[in-house]
Amino acid sequence: MPLTSSDVKRIAHLARIEITEAETELTLVQLNGIFKLIEQLQSVDTTGIEPMSHPLGGSQRLREDLASDKPDREANMKNAPVQQDGLFLVPRVIE
Amino acid sequence: MFEKSVAELGRALAAKQVSAVELAKLFLDRMERHKDLNAFLDVRPEVTLKQARAADARIARGSATPLTGVPVAHKDIFVTRDFASTASSRMLKGYMSPFDATVVENLARAGMVSLGKLNCDEFAMGSSNENSHYGNVLNPWDKTAVPGGSSGGSAAAVAARIAPAATATDTGGSIREPAAFSGVTGIKPTYGRASRWGMIAFASSLDQAGIMTCSAEDAALIFNAMLGFDPKDSTSVDREGEDYTRDLKHGVKGLRIGLPKEFFGAGLQPDVENAVRVALAEYARLGAELVDISLPNAALGIPVYYVIAPAECSSNLSRFDGVRYGHRALQYGDLDDMIKKSRAEGFGPEPRRRILIGAYVLSHGYYDAYYIQAQKVRRIIADEFQQAFRRCDIIAGPVTTSVAFGFGEKAADPVAMYLSDLYTIPGSLAGIPGMSIPCGFGAKNRPVGLQLMANYFEEAKLLGVAHQYQLATDWHRRMPGEFTT
User: Fold this and answer.
1) Could you give the CA distance from residue B146 to residue B312 in angstroms, rounded to a whole number?
2) pLDDT, tens digit, for every residue of B30-40?
3) What's the pTM value of the predicted model, to 2 decimals?
4) Using CB atoms and an 8 Å cut-off, which of residues 28-67 of chain A contact chain B?
5) pLDDT digits (tens, 9 = 90+) for A3-59
6) Domain spanning A5-42 has what CATH number?
7) Using the beta-carbon criterion (under 8 Å), do A80 and B325 form an inter-chain contact?
8) Half-sphere exposure of B420 (CA within 13 A, CB side)
9) Which domains does chain B have, with CATH numbers?
10) Which of B324, B332, B378 has its CB closest to that of A91?
11) Is B1 exposed, middle or buried (CB count within 10 Å of its CB: 0-12, 13-18, 19+)?
12) Cβ-defined contact of B297 to A44 (cutoff 8 Å)
């Protein structure tokens, strides 16, 4: 089932990527091409097959819940686009 | 000296025939001379020379490893403290990491000297290096051809002997395909062998670091220092360290090489097929047995990959919000608008496309139909490899359907570009080790790669099988004309 322009706008919103009308149309054509490729999977019989999320199976390794790194605030903030007094600045979210 | 292998450079350094500083200057000079390849994104001679001086001091102290003083360059997917780390994206322009990736740290600990950061496809998404925000990398064999991708800078730098070795990463073929297109040796190990700590994430269930070199022997030497368990990566495999050079001397007599019939079907160009068949005949001459095998669902690898990789990429790339690091738009309204504009400007077209596919296949009502179904078919493909390995020790075939294509030939059509990875994706989905070694030339005198794959954790065997071929042939020693002096 091909996507529509409103699908593209909806997923662009979900992904938090601004998209213009012109981009929406081009993206629609490209995504429909890619989904045509992906649709092949729908005809594969996968009854009784476990999904594979990790090539080697097993479960996620856990570690002791101990503080291991001492955060270096200055080093970790030096790439911040906008900051003040050691805090990240963003537009006001609570009026 | 620039044409020497990593092994030879290590011996020359140990014998004091050359110093690490002299080698660093030699390669920095070549880099400067061949700037037009656009292989490097960040070069800082003062950093490189400082590391080289430390390597010379270590050699003088008598505490050197076989790699101390040998230069290496890093794909700009690994974060580095001393060089900018951008993932070839506008999103991370100028980003300075507070730490080094484990792979980078491991090679530095062995004494390797870093030459700088290598261009690649943005966030490692692409098969031609045309998706870099910082421009195309040229193929040293033919500057009108792509070097392959996503590790295009790594492949071009090694092919042009601007770096004796370069780190790379492989998610669906990003080491093997550029190695084939640029005529170098490239290997990805078993998923979980190399630490992903500090490797900018694309698709976490597939991403794996590897190396590009001029020979399998060099790759084995570097793997000894580069791989190993890392508690900082939760998918790192906790196994004893091993000597990856141990099988280099093993002959291939009696080795069963499986040829998947699906890798020799429609779409494979005759020039590539011919070079690959001649290479396989060489293995037969050396005593290996060629066995016909089948990977019936290998072709479904592409649709599986283009669900799983975008899904995981949309999740991984959600961290780029213009708040803590990365690009922030100049003008915006509220917080949502700031994030949307920053991401639209910071990401190039291919990451944007993949994020959108990922967001769709993971969205409510589609998750089972796409993502879970793709994970199930992924298991079918992985199981077929295990069936195949009952009948053979190594799987061999072409890396790509054709030699390197020209700039712009596939750039406008994402689906045509995605089909470039037909033969490399199945091994990535299974998570097995795979490599590409040079095996001749095809149309327009562009290089052809032979793909070799082994079962989980059999890197040493794989490297031995490749080395035996390189002892009997000299394709891996060929250099593109312009770069021989």
Assistant:
1) 27
2) 999 999 999 99
3) 0.97
4) 30-31, 33-42, 44, 46, 49-56, 60-61, 63
5) 999 999 999 999 999 999 999 999 999 999 999 999 999 999 999 999 999 888 877
6) 1.10.20
7) yes
8) 29
9) 6-255+391-483 (3.90.1300.10)
10) B332
11) middle
12) yes
